Amino acid sequence: MNPRRWWWRLGLAVALFAVLEVTFVATQLEPDALRLGLLVALGFATLGLVLDALADTGPSWAVDAVRPVSLTGQDPRTGRNLSLLEGHVTARVPDGALQDRLVQLADLVLRQHHGVDHRTPEGLELLGPEVATLLTGPPEHRLSPTDIDRCISRIEEL
Length: 158
What we know:
Elements: H1 3-26, H2 33-54, H3 76-90, H4 97-114, H5 121-127, H6 129-136, H7 145-157
Helix pairs in contact: 1-2, 4-7
C-alpha cells in the first residue's frame, strides 16, 4: 500500500468537501458541516478500499513449497505400499487392506509365473501353508512385521 496514494485521496476529499460546502452555502441550503464531512470521508474511504482491492498488484514471486508425496527416489506405488504397511502396523484395529494387497501381489506373481491364482490348489501349494494361511485367514488378524516379511519373501521367491 502506497502512503502517497492515501495523501492524494485525503487531499481530494478535502477539496470535494470545500467545493460542496461553498456550493451549498451559495445556494442557501445551510449544510451541516460535520455530517457533510463524514459523508465525504465515508465515500472516499469506501472508494479507496474498493480501488485497492481491485488494483493489480503485479506478479507475485512467492513460491509455495511443495512436499513430495513419497520419499526421494521412491515411485508413487512404493510410497503407497509403504504407507499401507505403516498403517497396518500402527493401527489400533487392523483392517484387511494389507491382506488384500498381499493377495493381489501373490495373484500377480502366481499368474505371471505359473498361470494360477491363490484360490487354486496349485496356487496354495506354491505359496506354502504359512503364507496361504496368512492370505486366506480372517482380515482382523494383525500381521507382525516378521510375518509380513516372510510373506513378501515367499511371494518374491515364486
